[in-house]
Amino acid sequence: MQAVRLPDxxxxxxxxxxxxxxxxxxxxxxxxxxFGSVVALSGLQAxxxxxxxxxxxxxxxxxxxxxxxxxxGLEEPDTGGxxxxxxxxxxxxxxxxxxxxxxxxxxxxxxxNVVDNAILALEVEGMKRDQxxxxxxxxxxxxxxxxxxxxxxxxxxxxxxxxxxxxxxxLFERGLMLLDEPFGALDALTxxxxxxxxxxxxxxxxxxxxxxxxxxxxxxxxxxxxLVMTARPGSVKLEQVVDLPRPRQPEIVTSPEFVRLxxxxxxxxxxxxxxxxxxxIAQEKSQ
Amino acid sequence: MQAVRLPDxxxxxxxxxxxxxxxxxxxxxxxxxxFGSVVALSGLQAxxxxxxxxxxxxxxxxxxxxxxxxxxGLEEPDTGGxxxxxxxxxxxxxxxxxxxxxxxxxxxxxxxNVVDNAILALEVEGMKRDQxxxxxxxxxxxxxxxxxxxxxxxxxxxxxxxxxxxxxxxLFERGLMLLDEPFGALDALTxxxxxxxxxxxxxxxxxxxxxxxxxxxxxxxxxxxxLVMTARPGSVKLEQVVDLPRPRQPEIVTSPEFVRLxxxxxxxxxxxxxxxxxxxIAQEKSQ
Amino acid sequence: MSSPAATSIGGGRAAxxxxxxxxxxxxLIRLLLGLVLAAVIWEGAVLLFGIRPYYLPRLxxxxxxxxxxxxxxxxxxxxxxxxxxxxxxxxxxxxxLTGVVFFRVRAxxxxxxxxxxxxxxIPVIAFGALVVLWFGNTLLAKAIIAFxxxxxPVTVNTLLGLETVDPKQVALMRSFGAxxxxxxxxxQLPTALPQIFVALRLAxxxxxxxAIVGEWFGDTTGLGVLLLQAMFxxxxxxxxxxxxxxxxxxxxxxxxxxxxxxxxxxxxxxx
Amino acid sequence: MSRALAAPxxxxxxxxxxxxxxxxxxxxxxxxxxxxxxxxxxxxxILVGLWSKRTILFxxxxxxxxxxxxxxxxxxxxxxxxxxxxxxxxxxxxxxLPLATxxxxxxxxxxxxxxxxxFGIGVSSKIVMVAMAVSFTILLSMLxxxxxxxxxxxxxxxxxxxxxxxxxxxxRLPTALPLLLAGMRVSTVRSVIVAIVTEMxxxxxxxxxxxxxxxxxxxxxxxxxxxxxxxxxxxxFFGLVGLLERKILxxx
Amino acid sequence: APAAELQKASLxxxxxxxxxxxxxxVAAAKxxxxxxxxxLTINPGGPNLLTENLVATGADTFGLSGGTDSVFAARDKGLxxxxxxxxxxxTPFIFVTRKDGPVKTIQDFKGKTVTTWFTGANHxxxxxxxxxxxxxxxxxxxxxQVSVTPFVDGNVDVVTATYYNEFYTIQSRMPxxxxxxxxxxxxxxxxxxxxxxxxxxxxxxxxxxVKAFLRASLKGWKDAFSDPKGAVDTVMATAPTLDRAQQExxxxxxxxxxxxxxxxxxxxxxxxxxxxxxxxxxxxxxxxISKPVDLAAAYDASFIQSIPAADRLP
Lengths: 287, 287, 271, 252, 314
Ligand SMILES: Nc1ncnc2c1ncn2[C@@H]1O[C@H](COP(=O)(O)OP(=O)(O)OP(=O)(O)O)[C@@H](O)[C@H]1O
Ligand SMILES: Nc1ncnc2c1ncn2[C@@H]1O[C@H](COP(=O)(O)OP(=O)(O)OP(=O)(O)O)[C@@H](O)[C@H]1O
Ligand SMILES: Cc1ncc(C[n+]2csc(CCO)c2C)c(N)n1
Ligand SMILES: [Mg+2]
Ligand SMILES: [Mg+2]
Description:
The complex is a heteropentamer, with two copies of chain A (287 residues), one copy of chain C (271 residues), one copy of chain D (252 residues) and one copy of chain E (314 residues). Chain C is mostly helical and 271 residues long.
C-alpha cells in the first residue's frame, strides 16, 4: 500500500530506492527478522549518510527496536539480508562495541553517580577511571549537568537522567549513534526543551544519529530525513526529506512548511496505525 | 506576567474574570493550597459549566493534580477559598463520591479482570455484583472491549487498560468527570486513537469533563476551553476558548485555526515552562 | 485460556511443547526421572567408592529399614504433618491479623513490633520445659512452637505488602466513597497478597522446623522423635530414614504452598 | 524538619514503653504469683543473675558468636559462589537449583544428627550447621537478585562491547546486592539460633551448652540469663548487618 | 475398677522409650495401672527437659529422673520433690579404654583425653580420680558427644558408657576382648541412678496413689524380667525403629543394675540409705550441692517398704 500524499510535500523517495548520497555510513538491504512465528522485519532497506540525523517513526510493535538491536549488534538478522557498515559488509555481531546505543529507557545504574554513569562505556572499553572521569567532567556543562556530577540517579529529574544517558552515549565515541525514543518517558513540555538542547549538542559534535520516536512533531523538528515504517512486519514505507533550515527555532513547529510535512507523514502513519491498532491492542503487553 | 499573544487568536478571557455562562456546575474562587512550606496553589479561580469539556495544561509540578484532588474531595484547600458544586457552597470532603475521578495512571487492580475492574466503583456504592456486571457488559463494545471481559490487566495493551479505566469512571455516573492525564502513558500514535475515541464517547454521553494534559495538541483537539496554569504556585494564567467545530476530524490538527490556537497557547506555556524548568529540574524526583 | 495475548506471545514455544505431551504430566515425569537418577547415583556412589555405612548407608538399606517398620514412619509423618499444618495455619492467620493491626494502629506497632523482633531471636528449644509445663505433651504444644516460628515473617511481609499499596489507588477508592473496610478488602489485602505468600512459603519450612523441635520435648510419635531416637542410638540408617521422611513432608508442603501461590496471585507471576 | 526528627523519637519512646510494660507484667506475674524460678524467674532476678555470671556468659557468647560468625561467613561465600557459578554457567542451574530447593525444604535441625556424627561435638559441627542454614538462604536470594537484572541493561552493556564477566561485575552483582543483603540480614539471627540449637545437642561450650547444663543443674535463672544474652547477641549481629546494608545500599 | 473411677496420672521418663523403662511399659500394656485405679500416661523425656522440674511443677505426677545426684540438686534448689524409689542400685556408668592402649590403671588417666557426660557421670569420674589422689585438671576431660565414634576411631583414650547402651555399641563395633573397663564400685564409689520421684504434695496427699503406682510398676518389671522378649516387644510397639538385639541386651543389663546391691535382698526400687548418704556426703564435699540436704525429707522409703517384700523381689 502506498502513502496518501498531499500535493508537493517536498521530495519523497520510495523506500526500495537507495538514498542517492555517495558513501553511506550504514546500509541495510533486504533485512528480515523472525522471532519464532512472529515476523518482525521483512525486506527492510535503509541507509544513513555520515553526519546525517535520521528519525524513524512507525506504529508500536512494528520492529523499530528490533532494527536498532540489529544495528547495535545485539540480534543477528535472518540470513540473506545485507548489512554494510563503513563501506564493509559485516555480521551484526561485528557491530558490538562499534555503534553507540541508547535504549528506550535511560537504564542508569542507581549505584553510580552522574559521572560514573556517564563513563560506563569508557570503563568497559578499558580506559582508566581517572582519565575517563576527567573527560566526562569537561563535558558536564554542555549537558546541563554542571555541579551535579556527584548526584545519584534517584536525585535527578527525568530530563536530567535522560541527559546523563545521552552523555554516556556521546562519550562512547562511535561513528553512529542509535537513540531509541530517548524522550519517550518525558512529559511533553520537558520533551520540547530536551529536543532543542539535543539539536544544539548535535550541531556542535555533528555525529551521525539514527533516532526512533513516536512523535511526528519530534521527528520533523529533529531530522534531516524521516523514515516511516509499515506496520509489522516492518519495512520502510516512506522516506521524507525534511528541508527545514537549521538551526531550527522552536517557532518552526507552527510554520506552514512544518505543518505541511506533518500532514504528509500523518497520513502515511495513520494508514499504518489503523492497520496495526486493532490487532496490536489485543496482543501487546503493557510494560 | 501576561501571555504574549499573536493577533486575534480567538476570544481570550482573563483568568480572574468568571466565565460568562449562567449556572456553573463547579466553581472555584481564591483557592490556596499549601503543603508544609510548598505553596502548590495560590488564588486559583475557575468554573466549569454543565456539559462542558475543559482541558487544563501547565508545567510539571504546577499543581494540576492538587487541583483535581481538591475537586475529588481528597484534599481540603486552605481556609478562605470558595468551592461551589451544583450551585451550593461546600467543603472538599463533601465531594467524596460525588465526582468521578480518573487519576494520572490507570490504577487497574491486577487481580480483577476487565469487567470487575470496571464495576469497582459500583461495588463500592453497594450495587450487587451481578447487576453491576450486567450493566458493564452492555457498555463493553462501546469501549472497544467486547470479548475482553475475562482478561486481566496484564494481558491488555496500554490503550486498552486506559479504556477500562475510563469505563470505570463512566460507570460511576456523576455530574462531573475529572480525567488526570488519562493518555499520558500512551505512545503518541495510540494516544491519537484514544483521543478520537474519547470524543465519540463524550459526544454520546455528554458528561461534564475536566481534563488535564501536558500535550497542547490534545488540549485543543479535545476541549471547549483550555485553561493554562502558571508555574508553581499554580493559578489560571489564561483561559482560551476553542471555537473549532465539532465533531472534530483528525485532520483538524494541521488546520490553520488549530495551528493559530496552538501558537497562542505554546507562547503562554513556554513562558511558564521556562520559569519552572530550571528550578524543577534540580528538585523534582524521578518516577 | 485462549486469550489473544497468550496465544500470540508464546505461540511458537507452546506449539512445540504441545506436540510431546501436556505440561503437568511432563513435569511429573521429569521429576520422577530426576528422583530415580538421584537414587541411582546415591546407590552407585556408595557401592563404587565403598563409603562407610556409618557416613552414608546405601539408599536401598534405608528404604528397607523404613519398609520394615512402615507404621512408625507413616504415623510419625501424619503426626508431624498435623502439627505443622495447625501451627502454619494459626501462625499465618495471626501474622496477617497483626500485620493489618500494626498497619492501622501505628502506636501499637511501635510498641509491640520491637518485642516481636526480640522474640524471634530466642531459641525456642531453650524453653522447651516451659512449653511442656504450660501446654503439656499435647499436639497443641508442638503446634504452638510451629506457630511461634511461623507468625513473624507473615507479620513482617503483610506489613510490607500493605505499605506498598499505591496511595493513588487509595485516593481512587476514597473518591468512590469507599469505607475503611472496603478499602482493606478490595485493595489493601489483595495488594499485599504476593508479599504475604512469599512469607507463607518461608513459613511452610519454618512450621515444620517448629513441629520437629517441638517433638524433642518428650513425645512418642513424630518425625522429630524418630530423628532424636536415631541420633542417640547412633542408628545412622534410622537417621536417614527420618530425614527422608522429613524431606518428603517439607518438599511436599512447600510445593503445595507454592502451587497455591501460583493460583491465587496469578497476576504477579507475569512480572 | 522538626516533625521528621520528632517522629522517630516518638516511635523510639513507644518501643521503650512497650518493652517496659512487658518487663513490668513479667516481673509482676513472677512476684505477684510467687512463681518459683523453675517456672518463671523474675526479670530482676535474671538481670542480677546475668551480672553475677557475666564472665561465664560473656565467654559462652563469644564461643557461640565465633561459631555463628564463621559459619555465617562460610555460608555467605558458598551461597554467593554457587549463585555466581549458576549465573556464569546457566547449565548448572538445572542441576543445582532443584537440589538446593529440596535440601532447603528439610528443616536444618533434621541434619543435626548427621552433622554431629560426621563432624564431632566441637566447633566444626556448629560451623557446618550454620553454614548450611545460611548458604541456602543466600544462594536463593542472590540468585533472585542476579535474575532481577534488566535484559535491556545487559544489552546496553553488550553494545558497549562488555564481556560476560564485565556484565556480571559491573551490572549483575550490583543489581543483586539489595536482595543479597536482605538475605544476609535475615540470616544473622538464624545463624546464632542454629549454633545454639546444635550446641544443645552436644558441645564443648557456648550459650547452648550453658543453657543445657543450667537446665540439668536446675539453675533456671542462668537459663534465662543465657537466653537474654543470646537474644542480645543476635540483635547486635542483626543490627550490625542492617547498618552495613544501609551504608552499602545508599541508592535505594 | 470402672473407667469413671480411674485417677489420671502421668509418668515422665528421663529419656525416649527404650528397654531401660520396659517395666513401666509392660505394666501399662497389661493394665496393671488400671487395675490399681490409675489412668497412667507415660511421657518420654528429651534433651533439655528435666524430670524433677516437671514433677515439681505438677506437670507430671511421677518421674523417673536422673539419679540420686539430680535429686540432691533439686532439693538443694528448693524443688519440692521426694524420691520414692531407686531403680539402678549401682553406678550404671563405666569408663572404657582399649586393652592394648596406654591406659592400664586409673593413674594412667593423667594427661589422657577422657570424655564424659556433664550430666552426672562427670561426678563419678571426679570421685574415682579423687580416691586415687588425681586432680581433674591433670587430664583432658571433654564433654562426650552423642556418638562413641571418636573412641572407636582412636581419637579418645577413655570414654564413658552406660552398661546398657553405649557399652553395647562399642562392643558391637570393636573386637571382643579388646576393651578394658573401670568400674566405680571398684574405687568404693556408688551413685545410684534412675530415681522415681513425686511432688511433696503428692506424697503427702495421695499416698495410696503412690503405693498403687509402685505396686503396678513392680508387677510390670517382674513380668518384664520373666519374659524379656515379650517386654521388648511391648517397648518396640511404642518405638518400632529401635534395634531389637540392642534392646534385649539393654533389658538384661538393666535387670542386673536394678537387682544389684541391697535390692538383691530387699527388692526393686529399694532405697539404700547408706548408699544415698555416702553419695550425699561426696557431693557436699565437692560442692555439687551448696548445703546439706535433709535426707529424710528427700528420700521417703515408706511407700516402697509398705509393699510386701515378695512383691518387690523379681
Ligand atoms: N526477543 C523477541 N522474541 C519474540 N518476539 C519479539 C522479540 N523482540 C521483539 N519481538 C516482537 O517483534 C515485534 C517488534 O518489536 P519491537 O520491539 O522491535 O517493536 P517497536 O517498533 O520497537 O515497538 P515500540 O514502539 O512499542 O517500542 C513485536 O511484535 C515484538 O513482540
Ligand atoms: N502531599 C503532598 N505533600 C507535599 N507536597 C506535595 C503534596 N502533593 C503535591 N505536592 C507538591 O505540590 C506541587 C504540585 O504538585 P502536583 O502533583 O499537583 O503537580 P502537577 O501539576 O500535577 O504535576 P505533574 O504535571 O508532574 O503531574 C509539587 O511541587 C508537589 O511536590
Ligand atoms: C544416664 C545416662 N546419661 C547420659 C546418657 C547419654 N546421654 C548423654 S546426653 C543424652 C541426652 C539427654 O540427656 C543422653 C541420653 C545416657 N544414655 N544415660
Ligand atoms: Mg521499541
Ligand atoms: Mg499531576
